[in-house]
Amino acid sequence: MMETEKGPSCHVFKNLSGVAGLTHGVFTRHGGVSAPPFASLNAAWNIGDSHEAVRENLSRIGKALGVDVLVAAPQVHGDTIHVLDAESLARTEDRFPVRVTPPGDALVTDLPGVGLMIKVADCQAIFLVDPVKRVIANVHSGWRGSVGALACKAVGVMRERFGCRPEDMLAAIGPSLGPCCAEFKNYRDELPPEFWDFQVRPRYFDFWAISRHQLVQAGLRLENIEDAQRCTVCEKGEFFSYRGEGTMGRLAAVVAWER
Ligand SMILES: [Zn+2]
Fold first, then answer.
1. d(CA 96, ligand 1 centre) in Å
2. For residue 241, which of 17, 21, 209, 236 is within the disulfide window of CB 3.0 to 4.6 Å?
3. How far is the centre of ligand 1, averaged over its atoms, from the C-alpha of 243 (Å)?
């Protein structure tokens, strides 16, 4: 079946749209060149898609946001956070049009023109933006990331390394597994008791609310946290979904300071 593809489109957040000099988006699955099951805007290498297709997709993503370079990590559901400065950026592996850090699940920078990219399919990409110190982070947070409070650790890195104040920070939680679809049959083994209050019905959890709660615990103001309220399983025509599909591409979530 032929599909007429328009250019890449993305979900943008109201709270981040007001920040001068910031560009961001969580891209949909449309507007790329990959063939099924990766159709069409797959952002991930090494999941079976053609490298030429991924390269073209990433070029389109970078161009759509006007960033000089995209930086991504091999994501491992761990808690390693990479800070990109001129020196560490130079050490990343050049896999044009993306530069690749060592494995990790969160990226932080204050460099302009550097697009921090997280790849997701049901996991949350959480953008953290400090408009005062001009520092950004992009966090890959699946349920293991939630259990490890990785977004809060990224807030900690922004505080320690850049002197950011959590009360200045904005956060945005991307399209991801919603409370409608987040069934955890083994939750007593997988999730800590403090998450059990976030059940919306037996065995179904609201991880959007868990992230909001954790970020408030880390010092952010609730009114500065926006979540997309879009479930990738329910909207698998628009987004890639691990639970909804099995074999699939990965969505690109990118945040950057303009040069
Ligand atoms: Zn859903």
1. 35
2. 236
3. 10
Please answer whether residues 127 and 137 qualify as being in contact, where contact means their C-beta atoms are separated by less than 8 angstroms.
yes
135-179 tens-digit pLDDT: 999 999 999 999 999 999 999 999 999 999 999 999 999 999 999
Confidence of residue 1 (pLDDT cuts 50, 70, 90): very low
Distance 178 CA to ligand 1 centre (A): 5
SS3 204: strand
How far does residue 134's CA lie from ligand 1's centre (Å)?
34
Question: Going from the N-terminus, what domains does the chain have, and what CATH number goes with each?
Answer: 10-254 (3.60.140.10)
CA nearest neighbour of 165 among 129, 137, 140: 129
Q: How far apart are CA 106 and CA 87, in angstroms?
A: 18
Average pLDDT for the chain: 96
Q: How far is the CA of 236 from the centre of ligand 1 (A)?
A: 9
Cβ atoms of 69 and 61 within 8 Å: the answer is no
* Residues, CB within 5 angstroms of ligand 1 (ion): 178, 180-181, 231, 233-234
Q: How far is the CA of 4 from the centre of ligand 1 (A)?
A: 27
